[in-house]
Model the fold of this input.
Amino acid sequence: MRYAFGLSAVLIALTACAAAAQPAAAPADRVDFGDTAMVAQPCLPMPKALADYLASPADAPLNAEAVKAYVAWNAWEQANDWPALCRYREENHAAMTEPRPAVVFMGDSITENWRHLDPAFFTQGRVGRGVSGQTTPQMVARFYQDVVALRPRVVHIMAGTNDIAGNTGPTSEEAFENNIAAMVDLARVNGIAVVLASIPPTDRFSWRPALKPGPEVVALNKWLAAYAQRRGLVFVDYTPVLATPTGAMRPELTGDGVHPKKAGYDLIEPLALRAIAQAERGTAARP
Done:
């Protein structure tokens, strides 16, 4: 079934087809607020046409109905759920009845695709909470729901690619740093150890071709390493195994220069596990 291989990669294909489609109206079954917007179920269910397509065989052709459903559903989410609180809402509710997870991976599409491309890694208490396209302010807004409420021992935070790309508008290094600090503080006040991961190397964005992100990636990674040292956090640097000498992602490890293939995740997983074990032991110096 296609959904078992992950939503993100499929939606990339749907997005490419939807780009040429006419703008869609909001779905007819949107939430009826009634007397107040504080409702028990604020999330719009996935349209049946899209769910059916995602559940079809992997080689099933795209169809116009699924594309139209995706355009409408995505537009509703963008307008009504900016932080993507609905993305993992049901999974989070289910997880609260299970044993405390060992680690939650918080991030953007690089984290979301990791879970989809190597589901076997996300076992033994490892939980993925990546949302494609997200910037750090969006992650702050969902951090309590998607991380703190699950009560993990460790959180692995990998963020910044989309801040550099300006996915939610122009920003600053100071704003990025404040958002990282907010997530760290939320984790530590709740007894969750923190692993800060480097921003994966890249020298281009396919969706922002005019930008040259390489130097900014380097600058923010230097700040992340120094901040982790100041706060007594574990910092894990994936650059040495992923990057070319010029700071791009190694071409054999990526299809678009930003997102790793399975081979890229295979290289960073031992580093991630070592960093998580270090955080669990509390071996990073405390401030």
Remarks:
- Residues 1-6 have pLDDT under 50 and may be disordered.
- The radius of gyration is 19 Å.
